[in-house]
Amino acid sequence: MLTSPASLAWRPSERKTHPMNTQLLIQLLANGLIVGTLYGVVAMSFVLIYKATQVVNFAQGELLLIGAWVCWWLLTKYQLPFYLGMPITLVFMLIFGVALQVIVLRPMIGEPVISVIMVTIGLSTVFQAAMKWIFGTNLQPFPPIFETQTMNVLSLQIQTVYLMSLVVSVAMMGAMAWFFHSSKYGLAMRATAFNQQVAQSLGISVKTVFAMAWAISAVLSAVAGVIVAVVNGVSAGLSGYGIKVFPAVILGGLDSIAGAVLGGIIIGLLENLAHFVDSQYLHWGNLYEIAPFYVLIIILMIKPYGLFGTKDIERI
Amino acid sequence: MAMQSLLPAGDFRTTYAADTVIFPTAAGRYAAIAVVALLCFAPLVLSQYWLSILIQIGYLAIAALGLNIMVGFTGQISIGHAAFFGLGAFTSAYLSAKLSVPVFFSIPLAALITAGVGLVFGLPAARLKGLYLVIATLAAQYILLDFFSRAEWFTGGVVPAIAQPFRIFGFTLRGDHRYFYVVLVYLVLSTILVTNLMRSRDGRALVAVRDHYLSAEIMGINLTKYRTLSFGLAAFYAGIGGALYAHYQEVVSNEGFTIDRSILFLAMVIIGGLGSVMGTLMGTIFMVLLPEVMEWVSALLRGGSIDQALALRNNIAFLREIAIGLVIVLFLVFEPDGLAHRWRRIKAYWKLYPFSY
User: Fold this and answer.
1) What would the 3-class secondary structure string for B55-74 be?
2) CB spacing of B135 vs A250 below 8 angstroms
3) What angle do CA A85, A90, A96 make, to 5 degrees?
């Protein structure tokens, strides 16, 4: 499970022999920014669940995977146009997220953290295998969505899908920011995250908030999943994004949404920087895959609560 | 340990020594000895297939015991246990083949080295707890696997590493019939060691850290020490299990130590029952037999309509994974105390039979 790299966008296949390849560096940094914002979106949906329901969701990557497969299935098997297929996927994921919370996670409320974590690990195994069973193990290309393949932005040739990925990710982040700061439900969620009992006494239905957190998280993940699928095609490796989320959220702080976004972007940039250093100087191979985990260990050792996480203060 | 003993009513323990005795009843003690004695005759009776399953149960159970020290006794999850299992396997193979250390010594040596690496990854435990530690073990899993694929001098890279067969006093113990005894001895030793650990001060300290770490700290238990120690102990047993695996297979390849295997170990511990030695053995037996049973069932159904509808033959690997995940989820939701608890219930039922209420 979750072993193959889920790297987005192109990787330079040939090593160039120039001493300092600026073109490649810029390309990789742009790449890192795009992948990073996607990591940010996934990390955001992870933190959303953690903050609202105190569940560490090891099945986040599988939510991406399920969203991508469902959309792919609608688009290829039923030949639906994208503007129809995508909303149906999102509605499905909304129901799926709520169902997951109600059926599996709700009975786990009050159980020790360990049990809850292990339930999500179990779920991720089930989903991963079920997707392989239903859709096979081969990488399936996504039907093309855009007519024009590349666009000129600031004299840089950028593929439309990457631009779309960036725009959609940023839009989702903006929407989340608006949701939490200005909408009634967003405020209810923040209140619940702050203190469940107080929130309940103010008339907020904690049950609804929990279900809502899972629904929003599933929908966000599905959007991210579809974006990756459009760029790379759909395969089981897509759920690797769920694992990449951990370095991002640890870097940003487990309970900070802004931190998750920033952490995601940093991890995306760092991966590609590692790839640059690797391909240009070190030639160790595959450094970009493993670099985030070294960063993860280092952060855990020196600044365990991340950049924006709240420090745990124990009171007896 | 939260064992409900089957002592008759009114028979109270009056000393601590009596309270921590391993077998509260003589029957239990004789039963345990009888099981081990019967197992000694297993190679004479059982077929190759069953012996290989028993050996598999043996080395996996040792590693699972280690994980139970960490998860069940200390209350920390590790999702990197398979990487330590692999490290033990590669280390013992390296020591025996490249440095020609006798296998008899290379197994404990490999376990010690694995424990050392485990301690290093446990270091963040000094400052972290709960979730953060889980994520540290996740990183350990990926970093160690990356190391295996890079360090060709150590693991052989694409070519599997060779491990020498187990040799003692000039006898070579290879093949299922002989190697069985090696695994049996190690399993019995590990079981005794882990059971006794829980009767010592250190074991009680680990349980205290699990139950309420703040209270434990107030009572003078060094949290950092015991959290790190549990990492080390878990890695130690994973190392023994891995080394036994290496000398059983005699080749160690880079596959099979992925996060899937880690989840399998977790499943063994959960299904068996957290914090129960007996349960860990039962959980391991369950998880080893689960794929075999699925294999038999799919063989039985072969050609039938269910087989055709689900394409069982091609998808048995996925179905197995689904079964593992489902078993974890279902046990956690419906039987959080695992098979050990169920076993106690059954014993209690028969003890009071036919007046169970």
Assistant:
1) HHHHHHHHHHHHHHHHHHHC
2) yes
3) 125
- Rounded to an integer, the average pLDDT of B252-261 is 83
Q: How far apart are CA B205 and CA B226, in angstroms?
A: 7
User: Whole-angstrom Cα distance, residue B348 to residue A51?
Assistant: 43
Phi and psi (nearest 5°) for A212? Answer: -65, -40
Q: Looking at chain B, list the stretches that DSSP marks H as alpha helix, in order from N- to C-terminal side.
A: 16-19, 26-40, 42-45, 48-68, 81-97, 103-122, 131-150, 152-155, 176-197, 201-211, 213-218, 223-249, 259-272, 277-301, 305-310, 312-334, 338-352
**HSE on the CB side for A228, CA within 13 Å?**
34
* C-beta atoms surrounding B103 within 10 Å: 24
Instruction: Give the start-end residues of each E strand in chain A.
Output: 150-153, 156-159
State the total domains in chain B.
1
Q: What is the mean pLDDT of chain A?
A: 82
Looking at chain B from residue 59 to 88, which residues have their Cβ under 8 Å from any Cβ of chain A? 71, 75-77, 79
Cis peptide before B354 (omega within 30 of 0): yes
Instruction: Tell me the three state secondary structure of residue B27.
Output: helix
Q: Is A60 on the interface with B (CB under 8 A)?
A: no
Q: Considering only CA atoms, which of A277, A232, A219 is closest in space to residue A88?
A: A219
Contacts of residue B301, defined as CB under 8 A and 6 or more positions apart, other chains included, come to B307, B312
Does pLDDT of B2 surpass 60?
A: no
Judge whether B18 lies within some domain. no
Shortest alpha-carbon distance between residue B260 and chain A (Å): 6
Is residue B195 a part of any domain in this protein?
A: yes
- Within a domain: residue B32? no
* A111 vs B138, B267, B336: nearest CB: B336
Task: Report CB contact under 8 Å: B319, A129.
Answer: yes
pLDDT tens-digit map of B165-200? 777 776 776 777 788 888 898 999 999 898 888 888
CATH at residue B174: 1.10.3470
Say if B303 is an interface residue toward chain A (CB within 8 Å). Answer: no
Query: pLDDT tens for residues B37-85?
Result: 888 887 788 888 888 888 889 999 999 999 999 888 888 888 889 999 9
Instruction: Verify whether the Cβ–Cβ distance B127 to A130 is below 8 Å.
Output: no
- Cα separation of A46 and A61, whole Å? 10
Q: Report DSSP state, residue B304.
A: S
Percentage of chain B surpassing pLDDT 90? 11
What is the signed CA dihedral for B76, B338, B181, B95, rounded to 10 degrees?
-20
B5 in a domain, yes or no?
no
Tokens, residue A26: 């810029």
Q: What is the number of other CB atoms lying within 10 angstroms of the CB of residue B8?
A: 7
Write down the residue that tokens 């033959």 correspond to: B313
Most confident region among A30-34, B152-156, B337-341 by mean pLDDT:
A30-34
- Whole-model pTM: value is 0.85
Least confident of A85-94, B123-132, B188-197: B123-132
Of B138, B214, B333, the CB nearest to A246: B138
Which is more confident, A152 or A164?
Answer: A164
Tell the residue number behind the tokens 């424990």, with chain if given.
Answer: B115
Residue type, B235: A
The pLDDT of residue A11: 45
Q: Which residues of A touch B138 (CB under 8 A)?
A: 243, 246, 293
Residues of B in contact with A113 (CB under 8 A): 130-131
Could you list the residue range(s) of the whole structural domain that residue B202 is in?
Answer: 46-352
pLDDT at position B277 is: 86
What's the pLDDT band for A2 if we cut at 50, 70, 90? Answer: very low
